[in-house]
Amino acid sequence: MKLSHIAWLTALSVTLSSPLVYSGTQFKVGAQGKKNITLTNKVGENLIKFLSAAPLEEIKGTTSGISGSFVLDLDNLEATNGKISIDVESMNTGLNKRDSHMKGKEWLDVKKFPEIVYEIEGLSDIQIIRADNNGGEIKAMATGNFIMHGVTKQIKAPITLKFVRESDATKKRAAGDFALVQTSFKVALKDFNVKGTAGIVGSKVGESIDIDANFYGSTAGQ
Amino acid sequence: MKWKAVSILSLVLIIPLVVMWLVQGRNIYTKDKVQVSTKVKDEIFGGESEKIEWVEKFQLGLLPGVDEPSPKVLLSVSVPSGILVAIAIFGLWKDKRSKL
Predict the structure, then answer these.
(1) How confident is the prediction along chain A (222 residues), in pLDDT tens digits per residue?
(2) In chain A, domain spans
(3) What range does the domain containing B57 cover?
(4) CA–CA distance from A73 to each of A26, B31, B47 (Å)?
(5) Which residue is closest to B66 within chain A, CA to CA?
(6) Is B32 in CB contact (< 8 Å) with chain A?
(7) CB spacing of A95 vs B29 below 8 angstroms
(8) Which residues contact B66 (CB under 8 A, 6 or more apart)?
(9) ipTM of the assembly?
(10) Topology (CATH) of A22-218
């Protein structure tokens, strides 16, 4: 075997034996590593608005019982993950009768399924809109499991994430670095086996519900 | 003649109910709360932050906003209108009988 062959084989074996290092999207905001963001109303009003548009009625509602946290990986945004929970009891449509129906057995069945959960598994299609030492903004597609009415379904949701590093201005609201996640997506009731009262879905309640959410959090926790 | 007047008055009383329903947003159900959104400029994140509150405000609907039997079922268009239509029909029937 020629010396050059040995050199090539050595180089090849070194290349194959070295671990494959995947480099994810970096968010260059003057900080590194994983940031554990906990949702808190001290940073901003955590709010989910939902809208059911049906031929006979348009129902607008909100929910305020939002909790959860997520890990924002500044060195690998794709690896961002977390869990956001909604207390079904806190859902409000402005009409007590309708709220009690919505939380009843034929609809969301709050006694059996008191929470709606979104488990974020990662981000894709990431676009860095802005990034500097004070923070930044990205747009991405979040992928995760949406759990409602005992049914788990993978849902992709477009998000805008703003990250603000701690400063004198942020300290007036709360400690830590801040994050705001905004998203809008649709949830089809039939996908989650929410059948409702016979004849109501499609006439008074929309077949899919529009969700519009703002999640505010801080690295300092609640 | 007295019963005919009662019938006409009953039917006329339905009109303000319907007008009130049209003005208050043509809701299917009577509501006692309304969503009020407050948007404030957010100096930290940019743009606006939104806060939504539910405030007490009566809005007349076609159907009552309660299920259980209570005087609140009258707070709708359908229930008082139904009663007024029944009075009107009864009045016309009585009027016809008195003429016989």
Answers:
(1) 565 666 666 655 655 554 455 578 999 998 889 999 999 999 999 999 999 988 878 889 999 899 999 999 999 999 999 999 999 999 999 888 889 889 999 899 999 999 999 999 999 999 999 999 999 999 999 999 999 999 999 999 999 999 999 999 999 999 999 999 999 999 999 999 988 887 777 777 888 999 999 999 999 976
(2) 22-218
(3) 2-99
(4) 8, 45, 25
(5) A97
(6) yes
(7) yes
(8) A96, A97, B72, B73
(9) 0.77
(10) Lipocalin (2.40.128)
